[in-house]
Amino acid sequence: MSGEKKQYWKTLAEKEGGPEFLRAPAEELSVASPRQFRRRDFMKATGFTLGVAFATGCSRAPVQRALPLLSEPEEFVPGRSLFYSTTCAGCSAGCGVFAKVRDGRPIKLEGNPEHPLSRGGLCATGQASLLGLYDSQRLQHPLKEGKKVSWLEVDRAIQAELARVRNERGTVRVLSGTIPSPTFRAAIQEFLRGFADARHVVYDPLSKSALLDAHAQTHAMRVLPHFHFDKAEVIVSFDADFLGTWISPVEYTAAYRAGRDLGSRHVSYHVQFEPRMSVAGSKADQRFAVAPGEMGLLVTQLTRRVARKAGAWFDESEPESASVTPAFLDELADRLWQARGRTLIVCGTNDSQQQVLTNYLNHLLGNYGTSIDLERPSLQAEGSDHELERLFGELRDGSVQALLIAGANPVFDLPGGEELGDALKKVPLLVSSAERIDETSALAKYVLPEPHYLETWSDTEAISGMVSLRQPTVHPLGETRTLVETIAAWSGKPRSSYDLLRESWKAKIFPRQKKEADFETFWERALEDGFAEVEPGSARPQPFNVRAVIPVLHAQSLAANSFALVLYPTVAMLDGHNAYNPWLHELPDPVTKVTWDNCACVSPATAGRLGLADGDVVRLVTSDSKTLELPTYLQPGQNERVIAVALGYGSRLSARFAKIGPQWIDALLSVGDNGLVGVNAAPLLTLSLGALQYTASEVTVTRTGKQRELASTQTHDTLTVPKRLTPRGSGPRPLIQETSLAAYRKDPHSGVEDHEEKEDLWPTDHPYSGPRWGMVIDLNACTGCSSCVVACQVENNIPVVGRDEIRRNREMHWLRIDRYYSERESGQIEVAYEPLMCQQCENAPCETVCPVLATVHSEDGLNQQVYNRCIGTRYCANNCPYKGRRFNWFNYAHDDQFENLVLNPDVAVRSRGVMEKCTFCVQRIQEAKIEAKCRGERVADGAVGTACQQSCPARAIYFGDLNDPTSQVSKMMADPRRYRLLEELNVRPSVGYLTVVRNRPAEGDERSKEERHG
Amino acid sequence: MSKRLFIGVFDNEGSTLAAVRASRQHGFKVVDVYAPYAVHGVEEAMGLAPSRLPWFVFAVGLLGASLKVWFEFWTTAVDWPVNVGGKPFNSLPAFVPVTFEVMVLFAAVGAVLSFFVVCRLYPAKRAVLPVSGVTDNRFAVVLEQTDSTFEPAEVEKMFKDLHAVRVEEQITGETA
Amino acid sequence: MAEAAIALRPPLIDGDKTITEVTHDVCAPMEARPTALWWSALFVSSSLLLVGAIAIVYQISVGVGTWGLNRTVGWAFDITNFVFWIGIGHAGTLISAILFLFRQRWRTSVNRAAEAMTIFAVMCAGIFPVIHTGRPWFAYWMFPYPNTRGSLWVNFRSPLVWDFFAISTYLTVSAMFWFIGLLPDLATIRDRATAKWRRKLAGVLSLGWTGSYRAWQRYEVVYLMLAGLGTPLVISVHTIVSWDFATAVLPGWHATIFPPYFVASAIFSGMAMVLTLMIIARKLMHLEDYITIRHIERMSKLVITTSGIVGLAYATEFFTALYSGSSYEQFVFLNRALGPLFWGYWTMVGCNVFVPQLLWFRKVRTCVPAVFVISILVNVGMWFERFIIIVTSLSRDFIPANWFHYAPTRIEVATLVGTFGLFFTLFLLFCRFVPVIAVAEVKGVLKYGKPRMESAHE
């Protein structure tokens, strides 16, 4: 390992130190053999967690050595953090992360900036996945018919039963979600080899099946292509929420942002057609709310136009006209054609016909090989709904003797969960490997506890040829075992996951690369980096098969008073496997801002017609008379014929949250009447035509007369100055300052309302000699994905307060994202996101009014809050124009001792009656300052990163020293797009914002000046 | 030595006032006058010197104010100066309100305490009344015999002329 | 001069009393057994007090979260009640001090009760700054005392610290003022008391007062001093209270008109409360001869004057907003009049500006029940004034994303009720054990025994 490398991998602060600093302590210690040292010290450090492990009934030997990023002994100085490079398993996207380990326990996940896909970002789900490790309700030991048993016993029993099945030549099935781990996949194949009739069925609860099938038809290879949004100048998305929940949002967000860099010559132009308001849609330059039934028609319309330009074949029959104006489609087609080869069309629907048409569009525009990569396809989703249908059939007629469900929860996230449940009961040998008892594992005869991904060795091949490693950051807290190990044990030669991983890498991954001759070096390097780039899989795409293309000529008609139902995943819940996670339930949805519930989103117009208001409980009845009762939520920008409902809620995992948050005479439960958080909408899915259908037509809506007030952190009626109350002649409040690309190109200042610096009443009283911390947030880059919100919550020990407190507008998130709507003449709804935290004002109004000096200013420009001095008059919060302060109304519980292990020891846990707020992650600043002081230097630019900044996939947040003219944040402060919030108050905030720039060449200088509303 | 006191008891302020004036004209020494309420004009009639209390109160108030200004300056600008809202360490204008309050407090407390001290008023002090009812409906003018020319009968007559309810004569060891 | 005026004007006290009668009229009811009416009144008020006590104990043990506050509206009922009670507390000192300086001798028959009311009201007010904090057990940190936290002092720039000093000074000075006024009467009680305990108690408290003129002379001076100090004090206190809001950046709080506006409001509500109590007291203690219809009329006139000032302030606020050209400022006032709390706003305007206009008519001023009702309505209006100022400004300020409504919880309501319980309990006890009327002062203003021709040429 080269010194340079070493230097990189230290904690961010030490990273600045340079080799000599790192070497110094190393020399002092007489190291016998580094290996020995690593091992013993690692065990020392894990002693603490060992204790916990024993406490939780664990009695296993320590793990094999895990390789810290840099392994000098001084790393184990207590209170100094270690960063292990590993791979997130929050979803199948496989983003690279560093696990921040303090005294042997992981306390934070940070994006790995070197990771080629995620590029340092991490999504909300990823950030929150850390809490899963300390979930006290995680399975700690194997279960047989619900009773605790030893691994030995389980293994014996299952081996016996499997032997019987093998002899009877019975059918064996493995059902799992997409498994991005090559080792794991291989293990399963290994396991199935022994049986006569064995098959591995893969499905994705958020199915991409049609997309894969489409490529099977058009390119004769069933793969998920790898999309490069940074290479696209024109992006057209048909209902693909690629910035929120679709396939690999973090990677796409990073690429998308790169493609929209205002510095570059080409700023991508993004058109979105979708039935509901998605995260991606909210960022689009042109957005059309289209009924799902019309999507296919639209694709056809666009394809025809492009085909005509390309002079390529296309079905001649005339499709009916779509709701989108032909003029716009023509214009779009022109732009696409002009930029051919530098465009990207994505389709998020699970309809293979539409997907095929999309492929054809991309093919005609020559996107394959440029913005779409089939050579190195994505392996993030490979589920096949056909296979699923077949398996269902087999299960129904009870022909399956043994079913091993690996980590999946079909009873919850698939339609007809009930019947499936009954069918599963018929399976003689039902084994489920899961982290928790969910709807499915509850039915299994044997439940094998899976470890949390931070406890094990594993790997992930998200993109063919891009294999990232997962290494344990902590001794397993429970008696858990990966399925890979289990299968090895069943096969008779039990080995540790570490050995198994190395074996499979030696055998499969190592040969796929040329760089390293020796496996050990290759392995070490991969461990340090967290990933290795190797040759992709062998499969090669065939030339485009035009015969597969069948146009959609008609929009699905919809009966007069019925609606189209759209079932969608949310950023927080996705398919619902995170329903155990309080952080994600408390996270306001980027668009609706609703927490602790899913709801029936309807457009305001429709609500008006049906006489619905927020919180009115409605009953949805599908054509096949399945029903769902949900509170209404009025969602601007949604198609008027659409009812949108979030998936992933109503999971049995959320039953635990009934009494979360303070309990007092007027407190309400955080769960609904069903005792769960939200309602499970999966039963309304349909598995037909070889694909999971996320939309249903002919849905009727009836009011139940019941009420359920939604816990929303922003209710749209408060997002505006009501017309009645708007003073004459006053426009919208200049909170979001925006401009169009055309205008920006003319004058970079355009859109900034107030340029000149206000003068200070006491200019010379408090000079900032040292650093002066400041932040700039690029509103144009921000997608509202909310990963910063969770990152902040994890970093700063922010309590979860529960549904009732949020309903009372008492959420504790230090960082919130204000979401503003505005309406254009065209009726299109525009969205702008504005992350807002304490603005660290230089002349802070909060400080002046505190009677006890509990909030004062530091000499490096921070607005400090002294928790133990605060008596809680709340005067400061009242006097804060930004309302950036949060008050501990109760003793917000940190009852779960096990869960408390996640707390950041650098940040005090606040008690009742105390005010708190964003501190610019002062603990990180201090750490960096101390490191710098040890070297007698100034804190270098980039040495300090706040949690929100680090986690942001869009790199929208800049932080650093404003007194250092060379720092990036100073440059951004000087950017012509920069404005400050409520500048006229002259409280002199240290946070700047960069204007939103909409790419609307067609409309030139048009700016939506209408009153903002929701 | 013992004293000889003549007490004219009246039942209204008019006669009392007249009696005091008359006594002074006759050259009698008016030891004291007792009344259930503050009768206007008596002090002139008795020829009491005006009280010096106001000056004392003024001084005390001034003391309080200056102490407070110094304290506020010392705590915020000297002892532990902190940057509060970017304001100067010595934010004199902000000190004014408290200073004023403390001044008033000092002055008021000073006034009351000094009053108690000067009039020798203290809790559970035994009250010695010249005649009963002076806290209810009686007025008493107390004269002292100063020299031999002092003629009791004359005194008696003078009081009677002014409709005294009665006239008492007391021989006491101490002055009332 | 005054005597002359008395000679011509209708008397201040009816029934041409002798000083003997005065003493008797005031002290007799105290010495008699309490009436059933008094007992029932005490029962009601003390049970209200109990309710409030329970509410406060619960709130302190569980958390301020038991109130309807949220991250947008950090103050509501608590500070509203605080300002409301402080306002009421202003009438006492006003009557004793300001009217004394203006030689308004009619004050003598009401000032005792008014001062008592002041003290009780300030006590009620004092509860809220303490219990509204998140950690009431640390509320004493507001006081600058040498401590072990690196001699950490308080922030003298904070209006809350100003408040702390203002309120405590005001309470002390009013109490002293009250006691000094009480001194001669305590002596009177002592000397006529038949009950042993009463004589003892009065004996201790009256500090051996004899009515010696040497004492009377200084007494007058001290009283004048206190009046002189009390007058600026009473004005400063509510000015400082108003600064709690005026020094903030919030539109609707940040207004230079607040000090005069608040002081006028305070006098307004205080006067109304005095009226309410006087009308109750004269019934309860049969003091119709002392608290005459003319007293009620005079106070009604004060009420309508201050009502005028308050009304003017309301109008001015709107004008300033319009004139400022700040859309935030303008919005706040539109929002008060037409926003979600419009009903509160119009209750306030109705009760404080329109209803008092009735007092222009002599018929109304002299009709006791009418005045009683109006006086109560005025205080309802005044409570809403503070509520509207605090809540509307907070709930909808600069950034619409922060906007949120406020609704009180039962705990809060109970706490408010409790303070009324405390107030009336104390007042009823006061009626029993302390002369409701300043005997010595009333005797001073009787026509009885005033030599005719002297008064003529004086």
Defining traits:
heterotrimer, A: 1014 residues, alpha/beta, seven-stranded mixed beta sheet, six-stranded mixed barrel, 29 helices, 41 strands, 27% helix, 20% strand, disordered C terminus, B: 176 residues, alpha+beta, Alpha-Beta Plaits, 2 domains, four-stranded antiparallel beta sheet, 5 helices, 47% helix
Describe the structure.
The complex is a heterotrimer of chains A (1014), B (176) and C (458). Helices cover 27% and strands 20% of the residues of chain A. Chain A has 29 helices and 41 strands. A seven-stranded mixed beta sheet of chain A has the order 5-4-16-15-14-6-7, sandwiched between helices. Chain A starts with a helix and ends in a 16-residue tail after the last strand. The model of chain A is unreliable at 1-37, 50-62 and 1004-1014 (pLDDT under 50). Chain B has 176 residues and is an alpha+beta fold. Helix content of chain B is 47%, strand content 15%. Chain B has helices at residues 13-25, 42-46, 53-79, 92-118, 152-161; strands at 3-10, 29-34, 139-144, 166-172. The longest helix of chain B has 27 residues, at 53-79. Chain B is rod-shaped and about 85 Å long. Chain C has one domain (6-135, 152-444). Classes of the chains: A alpha/beta (1014), B alpha+beta (176), C mainly alpha (458). Chains in contact: A-B, A-C, B-C. The interface between B and C is large, with 69 and 70 residues.
Count of individual beta strands of chain C: 0
Q: Give the % helix of chain C.
A: over 70%
The helix count of chain C comes to: 18
Give the N-terminus to C-terminus distance of chain C in angstroms: 6 Å
What is the 3D shape of chain C? globular
Strands of the widest sheet of chain A, in order across it, are: 5-4-16-15-14-6-7
Rg for CA atoms of chain A: 28 Å
> What can be said about the biggest beta sheet of chain C?
none
Number of strands of chain A: 41
**Main beta-sheet annotation of chain A:** 7 strands, mixed
Radius of gyration of chain C: 23 Å
Counted up, domains of chain C total: 1
